[in-house]
Structure formats: structure tokens, C-alpha cells
Fold Zinc knuckle CX2CX4HX4C domain-containing protein.
Amino acid sequence: MQAGTSPWSLPLCYLKLLNATENLQFTEEESSAVVIEAATAEENSKNWLVGSVITVTPVDEDFVVRIFRSVWKVKNVSAISELRPNFFLIKHVSAEAKDMILKRRPWVVHNELFSIEPFNPAWRANEYFFTTMVVWIWVHKLPLQAMNSEMVLRLGVSVGKALGVDHWIEGGNMGDFLRVLVQVDITKPLRRCVMLGNGQGKPPSPCPLRFEKLPRLCFFCGLVGHELSSCVTKPADPDERKLQYGS
Ligand SMILES: [Zn+2]
């Protein structure tokens, strides 16, 4: 067979063309759409989730699949597969199994965040961006008058999207902190505190935040997914690196 005449050369040419469909004029036959039955698609995918490891280092697909098959148990998960590099589709055996995995976020594998999102049947794989982390946050140094559900939710909203609060807040057994479940934006540095004003003219005071199951974090820029040694924004001179997020 001569060079350039392999059976795959023509389809590959088409694929390149189809990546720029705005330049093509489709024939009447090509324009005839095959419609996805919405109800069928939803029924087939109702127990699916998608996930991605948030890291700058290459991801070993087999390793991730092995770890989560073991952690989540075969009885809960019917399949985990990598659809494209670092994009995993997770099929659960039931709605309960799917909800359990969503409820116990964040999932951390070897110190890296495995970001998990609900599956959207209308989206393609490249429409997921995995820019958030759902995590319980402890808010410390709170005055007693601020330790109630309404105040906790307000504090959670100031950090991200507040999803829930500890059920025992109103029931006593409180320390000097409370917990709030928040969906935080991981494209920004992690928040270290919320400022709390007393409404009496005094300057607001910082209430430190502690994250449960915090994955790998850069102590210089405060972003999840890499550490100081691979930070692209740190100054070259070590003496100029003021570590604001840990040491
Ligand atoms: Zn960094």
C-alpha cells in the first residue's frame, strides 16, 4: 500500500474537517437529525457521575479506577471508565449509591482532589470544567451569639455556595467552632478566614477556617492541585517567597 492511502487516511481527514463544522455546508441528508429521546437518556444516566483528578501531574487511569473501585465497593459501582485523559465516568448501581458518593465529598486520592460532579445528559465531555470542591469547613473563634443555623449559612455563603450545616448546632454540644458544607471555587486561592463584624462599630475580626480532608495545596498561591515545588507563580528567589497558606 502506498504512503497516504491507508484505509484510515480518509476518515482522519473528515475528522479534521468536522472539528470546524462552522465552515461546512451540510447536504439535506446530513442535516436530518437523529433525536436523543430525553426520557430514555435520563433514565439510562440517572445514576451516573463524572470526575476528574485535580492535579498538574499525569494521572494513572488504572490506579484511580483501582482505588475507587476498592473504596466504593463493587456492590455500589457498576463501572468506572476514563472517557478521555483524566475524565472519568462512574456508573452506580442505584440512586442511593450515587447519593452516598456525592454526600461524602470531597474524595481525595493520594493527596489529590478527585472532583466529582453530577452527570448532565445534555453535555459533552469537554463541557465539564471541575472548578469546585464540596467540603466541610470549620469556622473557628465564633462568639456564642453567632452560633446558630442562620449565621452559619450566612458565613458559608460568604465563602462559596452553602449546601448545609451541622444538624447539632441548635442542640448544644458546641465548641468554639461550627461546621458548614460549602461548594468552593478552586480556581481561586482557598479562603483562610471570614471576617465577622459585631455591628457595634468595632472593626471586624477574622474567624479562621479549617477544611476537612484538604487535598494537596500550594503554600505560596493557595491553589489546590500542586505544591510549592511546581508553583508557576512563586518568585525564583526563595527569600522572596512569603508562604501565606502553610509551611
Ligand atoms: Zn502555587
